[in-house]
Amino acid sequence: MTLDSIDKKLLFLLQTDSKKTTKELSLKLNLSVTAVYERIKKLEREGIIDKYVVLVNRSKVEKGFVVFCHLKLIQHTKEFIAKFESEVVKLKEVLECHHVSGDYDYILKIVVKDMEAYREFLVTKLTTLQHIGSTHSTFMISEVKSTTVVDI
């Protein structure tokens, strides 16, 4: 699907506030409500709009301690990778897990209440997963930029 300038503007508006009504969007785009509705449905059908979510203020729910954990596997066999990935996705503290190149195999973004909670997570959950060779943790001091808006 080729996106025109109206699709791009519509996607920007939805990414910045997905609770806007079709009427509000139609006013900003100078289109009819029906035309906006049809564009949104097409973007959803094509998989360009993947899902709608609520972003939670982590510190308000006692999950303000952010850790980036770099992790190495003991071997890079297909079996070890598959087993690790199937287990790590089950850990609710892990918001993101990226298979990366370089010195480490994975980078995990983990959120917990505090350092004590992270230690507990590390000892009782993460390091109990099979095939982990080593971990290296980096703790967030402050969040300079965090966005979910993809520039199209």
What can you tell me about this protein's structure?
By secondary structure, this protein is α+β, with helices and mostly antiparallel strands. It is 36% helix and 20% strand. The chain has 5 helices and 4 strands, in the order H-H-H-E-H-E-E-H-E. The protein has a 4-stranded antiparallel sheet. Helix 2 (22-29) crosses helix 3. The radius of gyration is 20 Å and the shape is elongated. The two termini are 13 Å apart.
Provide the low-confidence segments as ranges: none
Strand content: 15-25%
Q: How do the strands line up in the largest sheet?
A: 2-3-1-4
Label the structural class.
Answer: alpha+beta
Radius of gyration: 20 Å
Tally of individual helices? 5
The global form is elongated
Helix-strand sequence: HHHEHEEHE
Average pLDDT works out at 97
Helical proportion?
25-40%
The CA-CA distance between the termini, in Å, is 13 Å
Main β-sheet, in a few words?
Answer: 4 strands, antiparallel
What's the β-strand tally? 4
Protein traits:
4 strands; single chain; 20% strand; alpha+beta; 152 residues; four-stranded antiparallel β-sheet
What's the topology here?
Layout (H helix, E strand, L loop, with lengths): L4 H12 L5 H8 L3 H13 L19 E9 L4 H11 L5 E6 L6 E7 L2 H10 L7 E8 L13
Antiparallel strand pairs: 1-3, 1-4, 2-3
Helix pairs in contact: 2-3
Question: What can be said about this structure in brief?
Answer:
The chain has helices at 5-16, 22-29, 33-45, 78-88, 115-124; strands at residues 65-73, 94-99, 106-112, 132-139. It has 152 residues and is an alpha+beta fold. The radius of gyration is 20 Å and the shape is elongated.
